C-alpha cells in the first residue's frame, strides 16, 4: 500500500490529483473549527469540558469530525447528503419515475443526483434548526452552566440556519470536486477524514482514563483484530461463473468468453448500521421532551437509550440483520441481472436463462447475506462491548461502524490508485 502511494507521487498526473484531494481535506477540516455566527466559542469549549454531549447526536458528531459539538460552519457534516442519498435510493422502489431515471443511464443518473442535492439542502435546514434548538435549550451539553448561544433573536437564529445549511452545500460541492478532479469517491473520503480526525483524541482519552495503559493496549489489540476481520470479509466474494455464447454479427464473431458475477459477503456496507442506530435513537429522542420523571421515559432511558442495555444490544443486532436483507434486496435485483445476461447471450453453467437464473441468483444472495449480516452485527458490537467491559465508556468514537467505514474507504481508495498506476505504467508480458 505504501509503495503504491510512493509510485503515485512519482507520477505527475496522479501527484496533482493526490495533492488536490489532500488540499480539499484540509479545507474541510478548517471549516470544522470555524464557529457559526451567534455562537460563543469560549462558552462552547467550557461546555465540552464541563458536561457530556447528547449521545443521541453522537452519529452526526462522528461523521462531522467533532464539528457538531463545536457548533461550527460544518456542524452538520456529510450526514444530510448521506440521508438524502439513502432516501432517493429507497424511493426508487416506491416511485416508478425514479426507477426509470435510474435505467436511463448518465442523463437519468444526473437527474437523480440533482434531486439528491435539493433534498440535501432541505434536510440541512431541518437538521440545523434542530441542532440550534437543542443547543439553546441546554440539551446539547448536559450539565453546562453557560449559554453557548447568548443571543436568541430571530435574526441570529436565521443567520445560523443559513450558515449551517450553506456549510452543508459547500461540503457537498467539495466532495463532488474530489470525485471529479481528485482520487477516490469524494463523499466517502470526507467521511473518512471526519472519523479519522476523531481517533487521536479517542486514543488519548482511553490512555488517560481510569483503565490506564492496560485498557489502552487491550482496546488497540481488539481494534487490530476487528480491522483484520473487516479487511478479510470486505475482500471476500462469491464468484458466480457466467458463459457467453458466440454470436455472428456480419463477418465478426462476438462472445464465447467466460466471466463471473462477483457477489460480496457484505453487499449492504455500513448502511444497515446507520439505519439501526437512527431507529434506536427515535424512542430516546421522543422521551427527551417534557417531564423526565414519567415511568415510561425512565424505562426508555434505561433500556433503549443506554448502549450497554441488553434490550438495546438485542434490538441493535436484529435491526442490523433486517436492514442487511432489506438494503441488499434494493441494491441487487436478480431479475434485472438475469434479463441483462439473457439479452447478451449469457448464462450460468447448469442453470437455464431467464427466470431460473433469477431464482438461482436470489437463492445465492439470500444465503450469502446471512453470514454477512452476522459479521456486520459482530463488527458493530465488539468495540462497544469491549468498552463496557473495560469501563472505558460507550461514547468513544471507536465503534465498529467507524472502523468499517475507515477500512472500507481506505481499501477502495488504494484500489483506485493502483488501477490508475497500472494504466500509466503497464508494461505487459514483454518485461
Please give the structural blueprint.
Layout: H1 2-10, H2 12-31, H3 41-50, H4 58-63, H5 67-70, H6 79-94, H7 96-103, H8 106-136, H9 154-181, H10 186-207, H11 212-235, E1 237-244, E2 247-249, E3 252-254, E4 258-264, H12 271-287, H13 295-303, H14 310-331, H15 334-343, E5 346-347, H16 355-390, H17 400-424
Antiparallel strand pairs: 1-4, 1-5, 2-3
Characterize the structure shown.
With 431 residues, this protein is mainly alpha-helical. The protein is 69% helix and 5% strand. A hairpin with a 2-residue loop joins strand 2 (247-249) and strand 3. It has helices at residues 2-10, 12-31, 41-50, 58-63, 67-70, 79-94, 96-103, 106-136, 154-181, 186-207, 212-235, 271-287, 295-303, 310-331, 334-343, 355-390, 400-424; strands spanning 237-244, 247-249, 252-254, 258-264, 346-347. It is globular and about 80 Å long. The strands form 2 sheets. A 3-stranded antiparallel β-sheet has the order 4-1-5. Strands 2-3 form a two-stranded antiparallel ribbon.
Amino acid at each position: 500500500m505504501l509503495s503504491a502511494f510512493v509510485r503515485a507521487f512519482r507520477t505527475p498526473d496522479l501527484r496533482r490529483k493526490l495533492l488536490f484531494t489532500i488540499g480539499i481535506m484540509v479545507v474541510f477540516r478548517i471549516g470544522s473549527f470555524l464557529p457559526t455566527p451567534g455562537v460563543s466559542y469560549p462558552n462552547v469549549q467550557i461546555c465540552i469540558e464541563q458536561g457530556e454531549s447528547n449521545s443521541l447526536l453522537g452519529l452526526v458528531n462522528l461523521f462531522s469530525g467533532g464539528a457538531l459539538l463545536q457548533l461550527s460552519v460544518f456542524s452538520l457534516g456529510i450526514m444530510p447528503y448521506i440521508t438524502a442519498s439513502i432516501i432517493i435510493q429507497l424511493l426508487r422502489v416506491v416511485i416508478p419515475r425514479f426507477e426509470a431515471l435510474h435505467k436511463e443511464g448518465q442523463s437519468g443518473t444526473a437527474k437523480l443526483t440533482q434531486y439528491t442535492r435539493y433534498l440535501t439542502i432541505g434536510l440541512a435546514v431541518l437538521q440545523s434548526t434542530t441542532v440550534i434548538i437543542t443547543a439553546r435549550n441546554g440539551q446539547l451539553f448536559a450539565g453546562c452552566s453557560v449559554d453557548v448561544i447568548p443571543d436568541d433573536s430571530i435574526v441570529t437564529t436565521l443567520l445560523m440556519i443559513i450558515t449551517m445549511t450553506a456549510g452543508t452545500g459547500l461540503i457537498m460541492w467539495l466532495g463532488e470536486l474530489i470525485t471529479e478532479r481528485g482520487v477516490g469517491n469524494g463523499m466517502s473520503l470526507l467521511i473518512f477524514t471526519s472519523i479519522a480526525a476523531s481517533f487521536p483524541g479517542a486514543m488519548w482519552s482511553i490512555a488517560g482514563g481510569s483503565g490506564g495503559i492496560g485498557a489502552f493496549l487491550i482496546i488497540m489489540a481488539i481494534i487490530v483484530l476487528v480491522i483484520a476481520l473487516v479487511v478479510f470479509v470486505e475482500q471476500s466474494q462469491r464468484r458466480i461463473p457466467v458463459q457467453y455464447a458466440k454470436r455472428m454479427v456480419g463477418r465478426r464473431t462476438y462472445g464465447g468468453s467466460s466471466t463471473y458475477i462477483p457477489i460480496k459477503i457484505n453487499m449492504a456496507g455500513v448502511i444497515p448500521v446507520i439505519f439501526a442506530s437512527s431507529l434506536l435513537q427515535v424512542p430516546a429522542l421522543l422521551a427527551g421532551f417534557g417531564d423526565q420523571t414519567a415511568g415510561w421515559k425512565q424505562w426508555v432511558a434505561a433500556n433503549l437509550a443506554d448502549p450497554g442495555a441488553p434490550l438495546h444490544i438485542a434490538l441493535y443486532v436484529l435491526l442490523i440483520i433486517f436492514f442487511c436483507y432489506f438494503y441488499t434486496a434494493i441494491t441487487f435485483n436478480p431479475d434485472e441481472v438475469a434479463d441483462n445476461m439473457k439479452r447478451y447471450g449469457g448464462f450460468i453453467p447448469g442453470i437455464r436463462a431467464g427466470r431460473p437464473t433469477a431464482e438461482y441468483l436470489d437463492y445465492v444472495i439470500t444465503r450469502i447475506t446471512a453470514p454477512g449480516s452476522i459479521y456486520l452485527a459482530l463488527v458493530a458490537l465488539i468495540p462497544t462491548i469491549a468498552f463496557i467491559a473495560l469501563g472505558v465508556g460507550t461514547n468513544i468514537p471507536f465503534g465498529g461502524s467507524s472502523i468499517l467505514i475507515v477500512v472500507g474507504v481506505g481499501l477502495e481508495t488504494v484500489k483506485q490508485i493502483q488501477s490508475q498506476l497500472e494504466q500509466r505504467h503497464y508494461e505487459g508480458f514483454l518485461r
